[in-house]
Amino acid sequence: MDPERQREIARKGGRAAHRSGNAHQFDSEEAREAGRKGGEVVSQDRTHMARIGARGGEARGANRRQQTRERGIEGGEGSTEPEDGGSLLSGSTPSTRHH
C-alpha cells in the first residue's frame, strides 16, 4: 500500500478513536514509567552515554571560554585564559577534585 494512503487511514482511525473516547491517553504516572524505561534502555549503551557526556563537556568548556573572553573585554583587560588552553581565571588555583 502507498505509504501516504496508509498514513491517511491511520490518521482517520486516530481521530475516530478520540471522538468516541476510546483513544488511550497517558496519565502522568504512565508517562513517568515510560520515560524511566526508555532511560534505562538508552543508558545501557555505554558508548552512546560516553558520547553524550563528551559533548556536554565540550559545550561547557566552550561556554566557559566564551564567558572568560567576555569578562576580559568588559573589564578592559586581555584574555584571562591560561596559555595552555585551560579555562582557569587569573588568580585561581587548579582544582584537584575529579567529577
Query: What's the total helix number?
Result: 3
Please mark out the parts with pLDDT under 50 across 5 or more consecutive residues, or reply none: none
Q: What is the β-strand count?
A: 0
Helix content: 55-70%
What does the largest sheet look like? none
> Could you tell me how far the N terminus lies from the C terminus, measured between alpha carbons in angstroms?
54 Å
Describe the structure.
The protein is mostly helical and 99 residues long. It contains three helices and no strands. The model has no long low-confidence stretch (mean pLDDT 82).
Describe the protein's topology.
Elements: H1 3-20, H2 28-43, H3 46-74
Compact summary:
It contains three helices and no strands.
